Design the sequence.
């Protein structure tokens, strides 16, 4: 059962532990605000980004990309480019067609899903602007770019397919011959028709989840090399292990002849959870040319061709009683796949299917998702992947319901959420939430926010007709993360499991090497894993080194996404440590001439109960290395592996409150204050957790106020640079007020929950609810995202008639 | 080709360069100063910020030939005999970086900001770093780090000198 903790007490504990920076003898490392081990190379510039790698004889690749959304390729001539100085080779899609295979989709969500061929380089037809149609390989990156001009390509234009609703009309031009409907996926529980029949209140809305560009700061880059027998691929990827398997299948290079390395990776947010055309092509080029090749994208190239995120049309309706209690929810979703189905493209909206009910109890739920092909860059995972969309819809609806009933938006949530004593709770969407305390997080957030005072100020501004109106937005969220129990993934037709692997090696001097299958790109695994190992083995934090991201070093893993690293990968580390400790216990008992059961392990030493006799784990490690005096039949090694498959998802939750000032004359919105109280269970490193929340907030706020990938009527992407696609700067964001409550997870021994996506999931509806709240007295009931000044101003004008 | 002389992190280099070569590519591809990364191609992100004759510049927007005769300081040249620069230390202390890709540019821009305002307010830091984008941190800890670094530099008498 859920351990119940007083929120105020926890908040104080949290405040205290944040002040701890330096080691104290005997203090537990888990929970300490350790500074990160990773920082030293990052603040001094001694990093190894993929683009930093220079190999002898290395060649540079540049791609000719389609300037059209949709066209038949009638001719590609690379011969003139081939003759230019420094150019070693140039190829069209046709030149590579026999060996390039197709890019994989690992998630066939239905048996009849349309899964079009996806050649890494287009051969017959281009289906989105930016699709590669030819490449040039040269001795220098400038010369490679120069030679692109000399490649001649003729296109026969075909109609662009841009609007999802129109794409589903029978007479729509087709992206693929099989039609524009990729799949229809349904979920239903309870009797939705009964729930909506005679319901006193029904709220119906259509929300647009605009298309987003993930925009990790490090552009993608790939380096490939071969010695003629085996291959090494360096890539700015989140998924070196998954990539190795997929590339082996795609290229025919045997898995054991392919090593994939993710060096320092500069952010991902889902965008580097992919098997990209450029990775496949780099391998093919190095195989053909026998020389190392490098490709690094420019930002404008990346905005076109890094997979995009979101892009869904949500038609949602909510039925409730006159007291505001929810009866049923219907969701009819159109999800823009873009032109092809990439690694997990069709699965992303379905990750949301289980979250539309949020933290609330209801009798019935009906979900339908239609995947639609368009002539745009494929969509795929972007921070939150499906769950931000679901959370946005339900949290916007809860505010609309509150407005309909004249209730405070916090009160309407309170009447519906799962109470602390009801956990574990089986939701209408079929999940079992293990633990949570929504009231504690909400109460703490209201206190930090000064909710009542802000409501009073809002009323005063409304009263005096202040041109700058105050809006207050609420978002009480949960999410399913920690991807994922392998059995559940199997039941959803996903092409792999959701386990994670770890190895722990005790070195002769007592130092510890950890090899993790998680693949960090900014999260701080080296620090957090060191804290876990330090406690589990009783060794100093400084004595632990963590290796990752190289299939030659870490042979097995499922990598990093879906807030899975700690709750799956961290558990694998912990279990491997348990095995090390048990092996050490047997040897220590032998050395101490005691029974293993008589030993207790505290602070790094095995002690014989009731005597002073003890051996440190370092002494045991050295004795194991020497192997002079081991028990019969015991092998001279403490090293241990563990592969952990979770039983359930992880369900962090929290309450976010946002206050905005909206200038009704200009439409400009300014965030005045933002409070986030998150409950991610127990915490390994509060500094890292807070950092994850901050960054998540910035991305969720970015979707609410600033970001949108825009295609014009001809299907050209207009937002190809950072001047057009606006991610928030320091000047655009407020100082965040964050705090935590701690309701430990009951599904893992550390009691931890995922945190990587929480801030992004929670914040978008908090901000939009605030904007709408500011304008509701003027009759505004929605503002489409991003809520730019123009859109806010228009919403005001339209409501005024 | 043009012949240029440029000092980078205290070492003088003579290079034959194409007039179109960007300073950032000279640093990264020719001199091996890969501590300075490239995040965009329009001068928006600031990841490639360095000091050019003592003031910050986005090295993707400067031609190598424009740096002829100049002194370039990159993040790799910041640490002194006593260890890290106070701003590097402050970024570490305040957890002002996650993936770290924007960090070299952010640190250089922060140091430059203090040359005009040795004790910047929170708003001044936010406005001053508007040209340096970070996708990981949400900036709260960066702002704290810059103000903390400024404090440490004032205590060491290391700001305000132009």
Sequence:
């Amino acid at each position: 059962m859920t351990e119940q903790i007083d929120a105020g007490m926890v908040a104080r504990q949290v405040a205290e532990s944040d002040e701890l920076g330096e080691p104290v003898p005997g203090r537990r490392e888990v929970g300490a605000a350790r500074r990160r081990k990773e920082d030293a190379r990052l603040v001094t510039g001694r990093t190894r980004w993929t683009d930093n790698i220079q190999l002898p004889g290395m060649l540079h690749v540049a791609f000719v990309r389609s300037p059209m959304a949709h066209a038949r390729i009638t001719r590609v001539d690379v011969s003139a480019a081939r003759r230019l100085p420094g150019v070693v080779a140039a190829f069209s899609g046709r030149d590579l067609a026999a060996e390039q295979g197709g890019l994989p989709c690992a998630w066939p969500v239905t048996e009849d899903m349309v899964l079009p061929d996806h050649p890494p380089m287009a051969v017959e037809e281009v289906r989105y602007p930016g699709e590669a149609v030819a490449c040039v390989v040269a001795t220098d990156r400038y010369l490679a770019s120069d030679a692109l001009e000399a490649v001649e390509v003729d296109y026969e234009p075909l109609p662009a397919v841009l609007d999802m609703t129109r794409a589903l009309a029978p007479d729509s031009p087709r992206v693929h011959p099989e039609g524009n409907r990729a799949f229809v996926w349904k979920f239903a529980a309870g009797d939705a028709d009964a729930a909506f029949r005679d319901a006193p209140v029904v709220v119906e809305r259509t929300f647009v989840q605009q298309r987003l560009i993930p925009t990790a700061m490090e552009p993608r880059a790939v380096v490939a090399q071969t010695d003629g027998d085996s291959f090494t691929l360096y890539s700015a990827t989140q998924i070196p292990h998954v990539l190795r398997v997929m590339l082996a299948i795609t290229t025919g290079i045997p898995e054991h002849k392919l090593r994939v390395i993710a060096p320092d990776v500069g952010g991902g947010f889902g965008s580097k959870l992919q098997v990209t055309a450029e990775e496949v092509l780099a391998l093919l080029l190095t195989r053909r040319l026998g020389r190392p090749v490098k490709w690094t994208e420019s930002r404008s190239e990346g905005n076109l061709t890094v997979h995009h995120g979101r892009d869904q049309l949500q038609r949602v309706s909510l039925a409730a009683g006159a007291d505001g209690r929810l009866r049923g929810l219907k969701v009819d979703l159109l999800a823009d796949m873009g032109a092809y189905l990439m690694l997990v493209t069709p699965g992303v909206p379905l990750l949301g299917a289980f979250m539309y009910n949020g933290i609330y109890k209801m009798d019935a739920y009906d979900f339908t998702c239609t995947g639609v092909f368009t002539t745009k860059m494929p969509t795929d995972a972007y921070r939150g992947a499906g769950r931000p969309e679901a959370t946005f819809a339900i949290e916007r609806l809860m505010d609309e319901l509150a407005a309909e009933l004249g209730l405070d938006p916090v009160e309407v949530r309170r009447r519906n959420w799962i109470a602390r004593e009801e956990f574990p709770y089986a939701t209408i969407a079929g999940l079992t939430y293990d633990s949570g305390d929504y009231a504690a997080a909400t109460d703490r957030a209201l206190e930090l926010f000064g909710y009542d005072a802000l409501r009073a100020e809002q009323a005063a501004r409304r009263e005096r007709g202040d041109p700058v109106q105050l809006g207050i937005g609420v978002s009480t969220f949960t999410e399913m993360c920690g991807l994922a129990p392998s059995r559940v993934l199997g039941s959803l037709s996903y092409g792999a499991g959701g386990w994670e692997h770890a190895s722990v090696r005790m070195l002769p001097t007592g130092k510890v090497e950890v090899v993790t299958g998680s693949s960090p790109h900014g999260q701080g695994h080296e620090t957090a894993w060191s804290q876990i190992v330090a406690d589990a083995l009783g060794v100093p934090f400084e004595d632990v080194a963590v290796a990752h991201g190289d299939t030659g070093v870490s042979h097995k893993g499922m990598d990093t996404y879906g807030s899975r690293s700690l709750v799956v990968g961290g558990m694998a580390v912990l279990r491997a440590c348990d095995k090390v400790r048990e092996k050490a216990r047997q040897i220590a008992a032998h050395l101490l001439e005691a029974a293993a059961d008589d030993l207790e392990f505290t602070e790094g030493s095995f002690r014989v109960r009731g005597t002073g006799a003890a051996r440190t784990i370092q002494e045991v490690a050295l004795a194991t290395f020497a192997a002079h005096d081991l028990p019969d039949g015991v092998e001279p090694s403490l090293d241990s592996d563990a592969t952990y498959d979770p039983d359930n998802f992880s369900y962090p939750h929290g309450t976010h409150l946002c206050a905005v000032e909206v200038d009704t004359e200009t439409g400009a919105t300014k965030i005045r204050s933002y409070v986030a109280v998150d409950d991610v269970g127990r915490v390994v490193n509060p500094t890292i957790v807070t950092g994850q929340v901050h960054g998540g907030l910035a991305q969720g706020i970015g979707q609410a106020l600033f970001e949108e990938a825009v295609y014009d009527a001809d299907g050209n992407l207009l937002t190809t640079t950072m001047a057009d696609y606006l991610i928030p700067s320091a000047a655009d964001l407020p100082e965040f007020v964050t705090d935590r409550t701690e309701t430990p997870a009951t599904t893992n021994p550390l009691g931890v929950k995922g945190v990587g996506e929480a801030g992004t999931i929670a914040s978008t509806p908090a901000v939009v609810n605030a904007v709408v709240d500011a304008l509701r007295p003027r009759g505004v009931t929605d503002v489409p995202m991003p809520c730019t000044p123009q859109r806010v101003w228009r919403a005001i004008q339209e409501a005024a008639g | 080709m043009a012949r240029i002389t440029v000092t980078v992190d205290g070492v003088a280099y003579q290079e034959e360069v194409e007039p179109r070569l960007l300073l950032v590519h000279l640093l990264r591809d020719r001199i091996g100063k890969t501590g300075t990364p490239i995040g965009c191609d329009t001068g928006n992100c600031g990841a490639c910020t360095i000091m050019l004759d003592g003031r910050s510049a986005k090295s993707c927007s400067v031609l190598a030939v424009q740096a002829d005769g100049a002194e370039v300081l990159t993040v790799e040249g910041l640490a002194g005999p006593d260890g890290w620069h106070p701003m590097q230390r402050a970024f570490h202390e305040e957890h002002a970086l996650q993936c770290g890709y924007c960090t070299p540019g952010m640190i250089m821009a922060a140091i430059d900001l203090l040359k005009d305002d040795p004790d910047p307010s929170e708003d001044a830091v936010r406005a001053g770093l508007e040209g340096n984008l970070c996708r990981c941190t949400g900036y709260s800890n960066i702002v704290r780090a810059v103000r903390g670094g400024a404090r440490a530099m004032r205590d060491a008498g290391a700001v305000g000198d132009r």
Observations:
- Chain A has three domains: 50-158+220-296, 309-484+648-800, 499-644.
